[in-house]
Amino acid sequence: MPRLRVVPLLRVFLVALFGVVLVLQLFSFPGQFAYMARVDAELAWLRWPLTLVAGGTLLGFEVVLVATWKLLGMVERDRIFTPDALRWVDVVVRATAGGGAVFAAGFLLVGHNATDPGVPLLLFVVLLGIVVVELVVLVLRSLLRQATELRADLEQVI
């Protein structure tokens, strides 16, 4: 597919994903944790910590989506190999690290209080996924920096 067809399609999916994540952040998770607190008094104390963990993690993901939107604009304008693009990739790195740290705190909170290993194991798998994404983004950032330097050198030669 040519780039001009893929970028607008990706933007549609980014908007849809942002909307779903926003609904999860503002309604679904807070409602689920409120219900959990009403149904099980022993777990009621987890309502607000889990709400904050879910909200913070999803906020990091929303920042990644916005930065991806900005990077797509740079791709369309053929400005991806610039220092501005590196700044947006740094935003992705920081947001992923921040969201991952919040999620790790939630993992420790839930894992410490769990009676069944299923939920902590699932959360651990998600945490591993976040770490892998963070490491991949760091590798891609390094490649983007090298390509940016090469393009700058090429422009000086030309």
UniProtKB/TrEMBL annotation:
The reply on keyword Transmembrane helix is yes
Keywords of this protein's UniProt record, alphabetized?
Answer: Membrane, Transmembrane, Transmembrane helix
| Statement: the UniProt record of this protein carries the keyword Secreted | no
Which InterPro entries does the entry mention? Answer: DUF2975
Q: Name one Pfam family in it.
A: DUF2975
**TM segment ranges:** 12-33, 45-67, 88-109, 121-144
Q: What is this protein called?
A: DUF2975 domain-containing protein
Tell me what organism the protein belongs to: Klenkia brasiliensis
Taxonomy, top ranks, is: Bacteria, Bacillati, Actinomycetota, Actinomycetes, Geodermatophilales
